[in-house]
């Protein structure tokens, strides 16, 4: 006689009540017997329990049953096997299992319990990661991990430095296992087993992210074998296996030493989590967002975006977009300079809570940005909001009208002048116009519609001059953008960074695009003390000419970034030609560089002005040296790029970069101070010229004396020196 189906008793949703599954002790193939007991989450009198992390499998296919009291409950095959393996022979076991402890058919209870998942897993005695049944090869691998874990925990260094203890014991263990064809075959089987485990569905399930993210203690279970996660997450590194970006991101959030040193320790926000785990899977598409809410730092800070399964998928996505780009304050600056983001911006503006006057890290409102970039569609959408501040003075000490007129955006200026509350000021004293947009070009098959790059705010570096100050200077010049090239793909997969020295640009890029593989061909050792290198960023300490070995394969890169190589390449045209060949169709190369040549605003400056003397000698040295492109102007760069085969040439501009605090705004003065500090600290630059140019034509003492005079003169504002 079949038992009746189990029916749930409603929970008190006004409290933190949850259900705990008590599995009665049993043996072997005995049926699973248990009961559900209510408990208060987080209370002293609450039950102690372990939480199961597993994959449901086919949710509609539940051919197995367990007995809850005198009734039966249908479960999937994977869960049934997990419960059999986890059941103890000598005593009962208390588990929290989502598909059993939550009434999945109750539309009120389900979102209530989902909103408590973080606390359920956080307060569990242990999180049990069930990876499924075992094979002979996975048993070999698990036995190896158990032995390694036992040895590492006995190592005297374990308490202070777990990773060192594991590495030492791994080396010792590997040495003892060396030799013989049979041992090599065993090692290969273990490596294959680890790859097979990483390919299992558990690593793709979106809900497991929150489950392991919050765990205080956790174990990985495969068949009858169990190993702590602290050892499991170390295995790819110890066995020299690349698990892939998605799996590595999962390992980074699991309990272990990787968690403390990875991006997980930075309290990731919703946007970061959505990017990193975009490959995760869920039966209900809404769960690809809801599953991340409990571990998102910005969601936790304000309690926004609660799971609600009565809301349609489209609305859930729109709410997530709105929140991730415009958090509760309603930040609407991010899309203001993106001509193709009008639809998204209009959707955002439909929400009354959006603050259209919010300022970005530079002090600009969305209207300032739209006016400066000539985005008439965005300006029109913003001007329809009655509370818009049309006279806000932005980072360049200009109102939106002044921004539009100084940058010759007549359509936006006309829109602004139609407003009666616009105030027109005299802006004739503004000395600097425009912002830098580095040279970039595309291969022939570029589609018309391409997404814009993300806006990136500069970081408040404490130390300068040095690599950080150079990076901040370029960010300020580029108005917070890491790059300007309109990449064809939303997520570039293969990127090459050439000549940016300390790799700070590439590190930032790799953090923004976690799915991209960023190769850095740097001419000096990267600085990593201030910022950890992401796993998708590969650093190579090479001279720039040697960096071209990465350009030997056709159609390899989506984007090549070249910056600040200071004439290190003998043949610039050859570099561009190689870049053209190794870029994928529609790929981009972007080249940004600051000239050695010093300009000055006073056209009537005497011929014996120190800057004029410097430029004449520099021109002479460069023209007679192997790197005559070091002082090329804009048109010469364009000709070189076109000769290499590139077709599109948009956004090629020059700007004056002040060598001192001569600019009309805080932003330009900051750029000037950073540029001056970098130049003044470059005492070895004189020797640089000696190394790279014809030494027979250069008097080293004269060069050092001249360079010292130039550096000393930078504090004199008479001629307003600048670079381009």
TrEMBL record:
Q: Which domain of life is it from?
A: Eukaryota
* UniProt xrefs under InterPro entries: Ankyrin_rpt (IPR002110), Ankyrin_rpt-contain_sf (IPR036770), HET (IPR010730), HetReg/Transcr_Mod (IPR052895), SAM-dependent_MTases_sf (IPR029063)
Q: Domain (Heterokaryon incompatibility): give its ranges.
A: 49-211
Pfam families of this UniProt entry?
A: Ank_2 (PF12796), HET (PF06985), Methyltransf_23 (PF13489)
Task: Kindly list any coiled-coil regions of this protein.
Answer: none
The protein's name is: Heterokaryon incompatibility protein-domain-containing protein
According to its UniProt entry, this protein's organism is: Podospora aff. communis PSN243
């Amino acid at each position: 006689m079949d038992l009746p189906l189990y029916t749930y008793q409603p929970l008190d949703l006004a409290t933190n009540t949850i259900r705990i599954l008590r599995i009665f002790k049993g043996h072997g193939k005995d049926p699973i017997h248990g009961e559900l007991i209510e408990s208060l989450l987080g209370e002293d009198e609450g039950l102690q329990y372990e939480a199961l992390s597993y994959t449901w499998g086919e949710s509609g296919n539940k051919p197995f049953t367990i007995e809850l009291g005198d009734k039966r409950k249908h479960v999937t095959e994977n869960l049934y096997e997990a419960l059999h393996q986890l059941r103890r022979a000598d005593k009962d076991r208390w588990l929290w299992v989502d598909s059993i402890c939550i009434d999945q058919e109750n539309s009120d209870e389900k979102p209530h319990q989902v909103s408590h998942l973080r606390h359920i897993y956080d307060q569990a005695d242990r999180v049990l990661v069930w990876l499924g049944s075992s094979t002979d090869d996975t048993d070999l691998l698990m036995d190896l991990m158990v032995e390694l874990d036992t040895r590492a925990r006995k190592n005297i260094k374990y308490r202070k430095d777990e990773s060192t203890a594991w590495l030492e014991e791994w080396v010792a263990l590997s040495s003892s296992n060396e030799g013989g064809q049979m041992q090599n075959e065993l090692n290969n089987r273990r490596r294959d087993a680890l790859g097979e485990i990483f390919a299992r569905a558990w690593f793709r399930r979106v809900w497991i992210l929150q489950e392991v993210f919050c765990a205080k203690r956790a174990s990985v279970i495969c068949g009858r074998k169990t190993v702590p996660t602290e050892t499991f997450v170390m295995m790819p590194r110890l066995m020299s296996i690349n698990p892939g970006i998605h799996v590595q991101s999962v390992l980074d959030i699991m309990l272990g030493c990787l968690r403390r040193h990875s991006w997980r320790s930075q309290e990731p926000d919703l946007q970061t989590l959505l990017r990193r785990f975009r490959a995760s899977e869920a039966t209900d598409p809404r769960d690809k967002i809801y599953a991340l809410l409990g571990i998102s730092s910005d969601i936790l800070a304000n309690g926004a975006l609660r799971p609600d399964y009565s809301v349609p998928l489209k609305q859930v996505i729109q709410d997530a977009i709105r929140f991730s780009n415009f958090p509760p304050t309603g930040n609407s600056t991010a899309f203001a300079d993106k001509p193709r983001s009008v639809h998204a911006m209009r959707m955002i503006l439909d929400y009354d809570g959006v603050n259209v006057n919010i300022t970005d890290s530079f002090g600009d409102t969305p209207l300032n940005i739209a006016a400066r970039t000539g985005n008439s569609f965005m300006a029109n959408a913003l001007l329809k909001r009655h509370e818009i501040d049309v006279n806000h003075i932005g980072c360049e000490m200009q109102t939106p009208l002044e921004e539009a007129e100084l940058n010759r955006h007549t359509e936006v200026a006309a829109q602004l002048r139609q407003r009666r509350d616009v105030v027109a000021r005299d802006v004739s004293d503004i000395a600097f116009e425009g912002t830098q947009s580095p040279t970039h070009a595309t291969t022939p098959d570029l589609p018309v519609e391409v997404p814009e790059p993300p806006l990136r705010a500069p970081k408040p570096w404490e130390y300068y001059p040095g690599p950080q100050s150079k990076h901040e200077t370029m960010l300020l010049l580029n108005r917070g953008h890491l790059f300007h090239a309109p990449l064809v793909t939303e997520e570039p997969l293969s990127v090459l960074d050439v000549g940016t020295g300390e790799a700070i640009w590439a590190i930032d890029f790799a953090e923004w695009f976690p799915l991209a593989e960023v190769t850095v061909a740097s001419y000096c050792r990267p600085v990593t003390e201030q910022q950890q290198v992401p796993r998708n960023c590969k650093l190579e300490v090479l001279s720039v000419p040697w960096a071209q070995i990465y350009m030997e394969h056709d159609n390899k890169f989506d984007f090549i970034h070249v910056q600040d190589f200071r004439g290190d390449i003998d043949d610039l045209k050859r570099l561009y030609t190689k870049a053209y060949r190794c870029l994928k169709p529609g790929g981009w190369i972007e080249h940004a560089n600051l000239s050695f040549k010093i300009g000055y605003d006073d056209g009537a400056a005497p011929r014996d002005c120190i800057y004029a003397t410097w430029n004449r000698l520099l021109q002479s040295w460069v023209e007679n040296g192997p790197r005559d492109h070091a002082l090329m102007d804009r048109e010469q760069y364009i000709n070189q790029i076109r000769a290499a085969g590139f077709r599109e040439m948009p956004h090629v501009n020059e700007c004056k970069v002040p060598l001192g605090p001569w600019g009309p705004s805080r932003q330009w003065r900051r750029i000037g101070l950073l540029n001056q500090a970098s130049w003044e600290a470059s005492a070895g630059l004189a020797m640089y010229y000696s190394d790279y140019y014809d030494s027979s034509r250069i008097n080293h003492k004269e060069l050092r004396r001249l360079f010292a005079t130039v550096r000393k003169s930078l504090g004199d504002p008479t001629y307003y020196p600048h670079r381009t």
